[in-house]
Amino acid sequence: MSEQPAATTEHPVAAWSEDDLGVEGRVLDVVRAPAVVLSTVGEPVDPCSPDSVQLAADLVATMRVSPGCVGLAAPQVGVSAQMFCVDVSEHPKTRGHHGTFVLCNAEVVASSRNEKAREGCMSVPDLTGDVKRASRLTVRGRLPGTGEEVEIETSAFEARALQHEIDHCQGLLFVDRAAGAHAIYSRKTYL
Amino acid sequence: MSTDPAAPTSLHAVTVLGHDRPGIIAEATGRLAELGLNLEDSSMTLLRGHFAMTLVCAGPVRALEIEQALAPLTGDGTLTVTVRDVPDEHAQSHHTGSGWVLTVHGGDRAGIVSAVVGRVAEVGGNITDLTTRLAGELYLLIAEIDLPADADVAALERAIGDAATGLGVGATLRAVEADEL
């Protein structure tokens, strides 16, 4: 090869693609509350295992076919595991982003600047709620397939999405973080 | 109260109003549970320190029976309980409009709420949630509003702004949309 691929200078998360997994993702059913799996702390995963690689591909495939979906966590497809995918690149509120990626065993390393916003979730389709989340965030996790440990610094909408998905992996829904007794609303779907 | 004792309606709106004290909700919901009623939606807050709760519960129990079961709550004369049968109104899952939050705040005076929400009603806007508070001299109103798809939002903003200016208060109308995560 005569040219150095541009991706080598990119952040490993931004450079990641589901094509790296080498398996076809399957579209899975999204489970809804009160499914017990949504309130169960997910098991840590071996990011290099074939099951994890397949789950990662499945999560991305399921996110892709779900309109407006910017993230999906394993418990939402009925698997009690600490893995999720995110892609906020097309969302109007996005500032910076890292494209499509999957993280295993992710944890928040640092967070600051809480902001309140209204969230909805495919697993709680009839409600929305005001939730305070950090708008500056550092997350550490492992990429599926290689198992490489990565750290992401992000902000704004991607930061919110990451916290929402990490919560799913810990058995928490946005309603667990409602800003108050009157901060949960009936879903309104505007056509 | 059900008119046909053989076929009582299954949905009941219960209100409990009056002097606040610990244990009102526990007692009221305990008595409803004993009747086998299922709490569907409820809302409770303190209004100027007064306990104010409305709940909608379901079950094949007559309103009179519920009133009798809750009667001990009113024993000391500081709480009022009402029970009404209500029709089953399924929340609309699809609206052909948009969601907004209206905030009004300023010095307290009579007529703030009616003047401002009157502008909303004129364009067919529906208030789905409302809180007003008086804290010292500060009056605050926050309302969740559904506006029809054909509402002229800019014109409504001007109308609300004019009403607010006339009252010497500030008003903000902002779109509210949940982020799908």
Q: How are the secondary structure elements laid out?
A:
The complex is a heterodimer of chains A (191) and B (181).
Chain A (H helix, E strand, L loop, with lengths): L11 H4 L34 H16 L5 E3 L9 E4 L14 E21 L2 E19 L6 E7 H14 L14 E3 L2 E2 L1
Antiparallel strand pairs in A: 1-2, 2-3, 3-4, 4-5, 4-6
Chain B lengths: L10 E9 L4 H11 L3 E10 L2 E9 L4 H8 L8 E7 L8 E2 L1 E11 L4 H11 L3 E10 L2 E11 L4 H15 L1 E7 L3 E2 L1
Antiparallel strand pairs in B: 1-3, 1-4, 2-3, 6-8, 6-9, 7-8
Helix pairs in contact in B: 3-4
Describe this structure in words.
The complex is a heterodimer of chains A (191) and B (181). By secondary structure, chain A is of the alpha+beta class. Chain A has one domain (29-185): Peptide deformylase (Peptide Deformylase), CATH 3.90.45. Chain A is built from three helices and seven strands. In chain A, strands 1, 2, 3, 4, 5 and 6 form a six-stranded antiparallel beta sheet that branches. In chain A, a hairpin with a 2-residue loop joins strand 3 (101-121) and strand 4 (124-142). The longest helix of chain A has 16 residues, at 50-65. Chain B has 181 residues and is of the alpha+beta class. Chain B has two domains: 10-90, Alpha-Beta Plaits; 98-175, ACT domain (Alpha-Beta Plaits, 2-Layer Sandwich). Helices cover 25% and strands 43% of the residues of chain B. Chain B is built from four helices and ten strands, in the order E-H-E-E-H-E-E-E-H-E-E-H-E-E. Chain B has helices at 24-34, 63-70, 112-122, 153-167, and strands spanning 11-19, 38-47, 50-58, 79-85, 94-95, 97-107, 126-135, 138-148, 169-175, 179-180. In chain B, strands 2-3-1-4 form a four-stranded antiparallel beta sheet, with helices on one face. In chain B, a hairpin with a 2-residue loop joins strand 2 and strand 3 (50-58). In chain B, helix 3 runs antiparallel to helix 4 (153-167). The longest helix of chain B has 15 residues, at 153-167. The mean pLDDT of chain B is 91. Strand 7 (189-190) of chain A pairs parallel with strand 5 of chain B, so a sheet runs across the interface. Chain A: It catalyses: N-terminal N-formyl-L-methionyl-[peptide] + H2O = N-terminal L-methionyl-[peptide] + formate. Chain A: Keywords: Hydrolase, Iron, Metal-binding, Protein biosynthesis.
